[in-house]
Design brief:
The chain is mainly beta. It has 4 domains: 168 residues, no CATH class; 192 residues, no CATH class; 189 residues, no CATH class; 136 residues, Immunoglobulin-like (Sandwich), CATH 2.60.40. The protein has 6 helices and 54 strands. The strands form 14 sheets. The protein has a 7-stranded mixed sheet, with no helix packed on it. It is elongated and about 125 Å long.
């Protein structure tokens, strides 16, 4: 804080809780200011202990972000950031924030950047908070009219702004460092968790040492040792980093008045060296003179995109007292007098001083009056500072600082900018079933706002201070609110993993699995426009089909043995596919998985502990089509003694082959066929393919042979086609791939058939092809069988007679 203070002293390590006045003793500004620092530290520490590092009240929390009609809004209310109370008094437009000046990117620009980046990017909003000292230059109301507009005390002000940045999304499920059941961050969306993990932490490894030289300049008129402090007045020296960097690149500036000599700038001429100021100081000691270095800045340096940046250093060429004008040795630029422009005096001089400051060095650098400083290797940031109280009574400086750690090299003080994630905005993925008839994507709000704030209840709302001991779910084997096929269900079953092994018996009573299927006109006569579902209990009321392995409970496990389906699995497969084939429109039913919290238990320290299965949802996207879905956060739990777990997914029927046929690709298109003829030359070598035509008919050239396959419905997951080709000529005359991969979303595919040679003139090879869709569990006999006759054509009857060779003698 650049104020006119005698000294700045407060060390939390001393654990002082109060400053006490004594009768007949003087008390200084440093005593009162230390009391304020003690109070502030106690208050902020209490806030962190009670609330946590970040949080807002459930009733009255502020800084919620919303997007409306291309504008970004910040809600009013309170929030606590590292113990600092931050309050927004009114609903505020992002572009109207008083402490975010010229960020370079408006709210409209941010939203357009997000749209351009696509659904793999997010727009992240962080609340930045710090505290600054406010003087009469910032708030004229601090001047006292009754004392002739005297400059009295200053104020400590909390400054905040919300800053948005478009960034590429991190992989889902990245989690949060140190997350557990008691960490509320783990219940937030993936992009919010990534923001908490990526909060910036500026490294400050530099340090400075101050000392007194073994001699120095001065009037020598004071009865003090030559090696001591030689100043005529008590001073509070301030050494501040101007340009950040390491020991070789950083620079500093210094002031004997703690940087408190500052005046308002009222005018700047264009392309001029001269500025007009409101005052030139009360006297020569606290004023401005030729040769001095000053720093010119305005609020854009304090509240720009990167806050608290240093101003520009200029050297004074001359001072016009009458006109209140100061002329610099170079042209003044980049100063806006409408934004609290100011001129601050620094006291460096001589050849080391420049417009960039003074270079750091690990060897002593003299300031004045015998004081010298040296810097240690490390990283320095602009604004880092040290204060050095210098006293004439004993010709000393307070270094190492009294009450500190006693080290010669001291780390800097600095203005810390605290950060808190408040929101993460992403683009909505449009799919056809999200649209109502006649509605286009442009009519739907394109932006999804994930709230990243942490909220806490009032003390009167807190029921139990200590959460009860309970079981929790740490993982589930299915993707919640997404699609699974019958094949996947039969292959992997449904598994839930607890945080310790359960001891209860298991059955369909406490591990409940049901299938909800919509009734349709095809399945059952339903009145037009009516909506009716029926529910099928899948889990057996008895324990059959449920296996327990340590802390994992699995239903419908090991239905297949050596890839050959058991009779019960085949019956189950047929039943589920039959039921789902009658649903509409996509053939998917909804499977609900419920664990009874009061009937699932394990061993606790004092008896049974029960399942706290409450799972909190967050917006995610389905792997099947990218549409929005609800992901459940793990581990479960809401500090309840017992609660049910509910999860769900959509069950789609197995993908079967609706139709399959051999096709011949002609110039006019592909046609189904069961025979093809190989054309040959007079030597019997294959030259091409043509249709097999009856005697007297004209055959049509064929460019390729393929297998055309359509599926029973559009697959929601990738699957594999398996081919088995038998008959004469397999591998020599004709071949097909053993497998063919089909991506999700393809309702039909064409698989190439390779015919590499003729079976022989007039010879016909007939091959049989069995093709089946394999999406995991696929019983035999549910494929298609095709035949293709491949006939070798006759060589042409025209015989080539070469002309006789003529010899000339």
């Amino acid at each position: 804080m650049k104020g006119d203070f005698s000294r700045i002293r407060f060390n939390p390590a001393q654990e002082y809780v109060a400053v006490l006045k004594q009768q007949g003793r003087v008390d200084l500004d440093s005593d009162a200011n230390e009391q304020r620092a003690i109070d502030l530290t106690l208050r902020e520490t209490t806030n962190v202990d009670v609330i946590g590092p970040l949080g807002g009240p459930e009733i009255g929390a502020g800084f919620a972000i919303s997007v409306e009609n291309g504008k970004i809004w910040i809600s009013p209310g309170r929030y606590y950031v590292d113990g600092v109370l931050v309050e927004n008094q009114r609903r505020l437009n992002y572009d109207d924030q008083p402490y975010l000046i010229d960020p370079g990117t408006s709210a409209e620009d941010l939203l357009q950047q997000l749209i351009a980046a696509g659904d793999q990017a997010t727009l992240q909003f962080v609340l930045e908070v710090w505290q600054r000292m406010v003087t009469a230059l910032d708030d004229p109301c601090l001047l006292e009219p009754a004392l002739g507009q005297a400059d009295t005390t200053t104020r400590l002000q909390t400054v905040w702004r919300v800053v948005g940045t478009v960034t590429q999304s991190q992989a889902q499920g990245s989690g949060v460092e140190g997350a557990g059941e008691d960490n509320p961050i783990s219940q937030l969306s993936d992009c919010c968790q990534a923001m908490y993990n990526n909060l910036s932490n500026v490294e400050r490894s530099g340090a400075m040492r101050a000392g007194l030289s073994q001699g120095g300049s001065g009037c020598g008129c004071q009865p003090i040792p030559a090696a001591g402090y030689q100043g005529l007045e008590n001073q509070l020296y301030r050494v501040e980093i101007h340009n950040g960097g390491d020991l070789s690149t950083a620079t500093f500036k210094w002031s004997r008045e703690n940087g408190s000599v500052v005046v308002a700038v009222t005018g700047v001429s264009l392309n001029s060296n001269t500025i007009t100021v409101a005052s030139l100081g009360p006297d020569a000691n606290l004023g401005f003179q030729a040769g001095q270095w000053v720093e010119l800045s305005d609020d854009s340096y304090l509240f720009g995109a990167t806050p608290n940046q240093p101003g520009m250093l200029y050297q004074i060429s001359s001072v016009n007292q009458a006109a209140l004008q100061v002329t610099m040795t170079s042209t003044v630029g980049g100063l806006d007098t409408s934004m609290n422009a100011r001129m601050r005096r620094w006291d460096q001089s001589g050849s080391p001083a420049s417009s960039a400051g003074i270079s750091l060095s690990n060897t002593p650098i003299g300031l004045e009056n015998g004081i010298e400083v040296a810097f240690r290797k490390g990283q320095y940031e602009s604004g880092d500072y040290w204060t050095i109280p210098a006293r004439t009574a004993n010709g000393s400086i307070d270094w190492p600082p009294c009450g500190g750690n006693g080290r010669q090299f001291q780390s800097p003080s600095y203005m810390q900018v605290h950060q808190a994630p408040v929101a993460c905005v992403s683009l909505r993925r449009f799919t056809n079933f999200l649209l109502r008839p006649g509605q286009s994507p442009s009519e739907i709000d394109r932006f999804i706002v994930n709230d990243c704030r942490l909220l806490f209840p009032s003390l009167t709302s807190v029921a139990a201070m200590t959460p009860p001991e309970a079981l929790h779910l740490s993982a589930i084997s299915w993707t919640n609110d997404d699609v699974m096929t019958v094949d996947e269900l039969l292959l992997q079953g449904l598994a839930v993993t607890l945080d310790q092994a359960p001891t209860c018996p298991w059955s369909g009573a406490n591990f409940q699995v049901t299938l909800e299927v919509p009734l349709t006109q095809r399945f059952y006569p339903v009145a037009t426009g009516a909506s009716l579902n029926f529910t099928i209990i899948l889990a057996s009321p008895l324990a059959s089909g449920i296996a327990v392995s340590g802390d994992q409970v699995i239903w419908l496990y090991a239905f297949a043995t050596e890839n050959f389906p058991l009779k019960s699995a085949l019956e189950f497969w047929i039943s589920l596919n039959t039921i789902l084939s009658y649903t509409s429109p996509s053939g998917a039913g909804r499977v609900r998985v419920k664990l009874d919290g009061g009937a699932v238990y394990g061993n606790g320290t004092t008896g049974n502990i029960y399942l706290d299965g409450l799972a909190f949802g967050s917006t995610s996207s389905r792997a099947s089509d990218g549409s929005e879905c609800i992901a459940l956060g793990m581990p479960t739990g809401s500090h309840l003694k017992a609660s049910d777990f509910d999860g769900w997914f959509y069950l789609a029927p197995s993908v079967l082959i609706e139709s399959a046929s051999f096709e011949l690709v002609e110039s006019t298109g592909a046609v189904a066929a069961t025979a093809v003829t190989v054309t040959v030359n007079e030597f019997g070598f294959m030259t091409g393919l043509e249709t097999t035509a009856p005697a007297g008919a004209v055959a049509t050239p064929v460019s390729a042979v393929q297998i055309a396959i359509t599926f029973s419905y559009t697959p929601v997951a990738a699957l594999t086609l398996r081919f088995n080709l038998s008959g004469t000529g397999v591998g020599t005359v004709v071949s097909v791939p053993a497998t063919f991969a089909v991506a999700a979303g393809l309702a039909a595919v064409n698989v190439p058939v390779t015919i590499s040679q003729s079976p022989g003139a007039g010879v016909t090879d007939t091959v049989t092809l069995n093709v089946a869709a394999d999406s995991g569990f696929q019983p035999l006999g549910y494929g298609q069988q095709l035949t293709l006759a491949i006939t070798g054509g006759q060589p042409p009857t025209t015989i080539f007679h070469p002309e006789p060779i003529k010899f000339n003698f």
